[in-house]
Automatic annotation (TrEMBL):
GO terms for cellular component: cytoplasm. Heteromultimer composed of HisG and HisZ subunits. It comes from Edaphosphingomonas haloaromaticamans. It comes from the Bacteria. Catalyzes the condensation of ATP and 5-phosphoribose 1-diphosphate to form N'-(5'-phosphoribosyl)-ATP (PR-ATP). Has a crucial role in the pathway because the rate of histidine biosynthesis seems to be controlled primarily by regulation of HisG enzymatic activity. It is an enzyme of class 2 (transferase). Residues 56-212 form the ATP phosphoribosyltransferase catalytic domain. Its main location: cytoplasm. PROSITE patterns: ATP_P_PHORIBOSYLTR. Its EC number is 2.4.2.17. This is ATP phosphoribosyltransferase.
Length: 224
């Protein structure tokens, strides 16, 4: 029998929104998948030819790009940061909605005009996206790479500004920061390894179509 199709799912906040979508396309993981205490990384589903792995958000893209997982669910922030040529992203799932923004301390923003910047130093998990965003208008971005808790960087003098994901704005507010510029809107995408999409089309194409149909159905419900 052929190896199962592996779907890579990110731990963290997208996971919660992903489970109902998986169920609606007929994929139900074994119970341990939703158990925060479980140390397992690979899980069976109700479909013998489909397995799941639960990995960090940035690693979902790495597993799929290298063909170690054939399918994944990942934020467009991660795809835009790395721009993997081996990844095909056919469906915007409409979950994990947020935006990538530049933020700075409230006091600094009062007398600041982003149009006058020629050089910025920012703390971010997204140095690639940040440099490209600023380079497009001739601003040189010096990036300090962090993997989390960017919001603490300005007050401790690590970098005067940050580039991070924002949704409700609560994290910025509680750390004395304000958004001064949006870099891009973010939502989660279904991704597929391009080579696997060709060689295992009979298994993968129906799954992609099931997700596409689900999103279209939800769009119609929203519009009604
Ligand atoms: N505030 C948010 N609102 C909506 N979606 C978000 C938000 N923050 C992150 N996301 C989305 O969820 C993905 C995973 O983010 P999350 O914060 O759960 O991971 P993380 O804790 O930073 O990851 P890791 O611990 O694996 O490095 C992001 O890549 C983004 O697409
Ligand atoms: O605008 P808000 O609604 O406050 O959301 C923004 C926060 O959400 C994300 O972090 P998350 O809480 O996922 O955890 P992390 O810091 O571990 O990445 C992001 O990195 C911000 O810190």
């Amino acid at each position: 029998m052929a190896d199962p199709i592996i779907i890579a799912i990110p731990k963290g906040r997208i996971l919660v929104e992903t489970l109902p979508m998986l169920a609606r396309v007929g994929i139900v993981p074994e119970a341990a998948f939703s158990d925060e205490d479980s140390r397992a990384l690979r899980f069976a589903t109700n479909q013998p030819h489909i397995g799941l792995i639960r990995v960090r958000a940035f690693d979902v893209a790495t597993f799929v790009a290298h063909g170690a997982a054939q399918i994944g669910i990942v934020g467009s922030d991660v795809l835009d940061e790395f721009d993997y040529s081996e990844i095909y992203a056919p469906v915007d799932l409409g979950i994990g909605r947020c935006r990538l923004s530049v933020a700075e301390p409230v006091e600094m923003a009062a007398g600041d005009d982003p149009r006058e910047w020629s050089h910025v130093r920012v703390a971010t998990k997204y140095p690639g996206l940040t440099r490209r965003h600023f380079a497009a208008r001739g601003v040189q971005a010096e990036c300090v790479k962090l993997n989390g808790a960017m919001e603490i960087a300005p007050v401790l003098g690590l970098a005067s500004r940050i580039v991070d994901l924002v949704s409700s704005g609560r994290t910025l507010k509680e750390n004395g920061l304000v958004e001064v510029e949006t870099i891009c809107e973010v939502s989660a995408r279904l991704i597929v390894n391009r080579a696997a999409f060709k060689t295992r089309a009979e298994e993968i194409a129906p799954l992609v179509e099931a997700f596409r149909a689900l999103v279209a159905e939800e769009g119609q419900q929203d519009a009604a």
